[in-house]
Design goal:
Spore Coat Polysaccharide Biosynthesis Protein SpsA, Chain A
Amino acid sequence: MPIRSCVTAVIVTYQSASEIGACLQSLTENATGWIAECRIVDNNSQDGSADAAERSYPGAAVIRNPENLGFSKAVNSGARNTTTEYLLILNPDAVLKSDALSELVHFLDSRKEAAACGPKMLGPNGEFQSVCRRSFPTPWNTLGYYLGLNRIFPRSRRWASYKPETVSPDFESRVDVLSGACMLIRREDFQTVGGFDEDYFLFGEDIDICWKLHQAGRELWYVPAAEVVHAKGASMKHALKRAKREFYHSMLIYIEKRLSHDYASFACFLMKTGVRFRRMLGFLPGL
């Protein structure tokens, strides 16, 4: 299939000056011809992220917010009034490997039932990041994840289904949840479900939009032929305390919004208890 300019890249930066250059260089080197427009939304960084983005990708449209609006609002503003067939939601600490975007575009081109797809995500040392293919949180797998039962019973569908660690990372599959660190989504589907829910400041918005897409009868797919190197946490290292707070807050929002109508109140109470227990311990799980 011939290369065509069918993708708008939307990248949100916050204190990302040291990461954004490599991210944008990967677009230049590995996504030539696919990217019709690159929009970078800067959440009032104080480290020169917006200037660094303009230097690294001179043709990019850089939106400079006067305050930190959070990830969801920033992505929605960057995606507003776009006209391309696809949107590439990409973190500034993510680097596309050769043919990654090509593989994702070809997949969506060939499967009209799919609203979005995501790549295999690897850490800087090549380790697989299971965040790129997840199941929806339930009271049981959430408790299993937060209380460590998933490690005791790694093959349990009840306790260990949130991140299926026993499934080969090379297996292409339909999944519940893709990572917002790198996701190719049809613009029409993104608009139909209202984009990211802006009640989420940071974290949880990717789970939520995947939930909305499933409710709309659309598919999401994990495509391991596409690979992205993700320095997970690099874009949050300057505000780790707030990141911890927002992570747990987002999980509680998701439980209240999406699970409270499907599960008994006691089950949701247990789920919230697990989240609050981990918050009390001060952990920040690797999403």
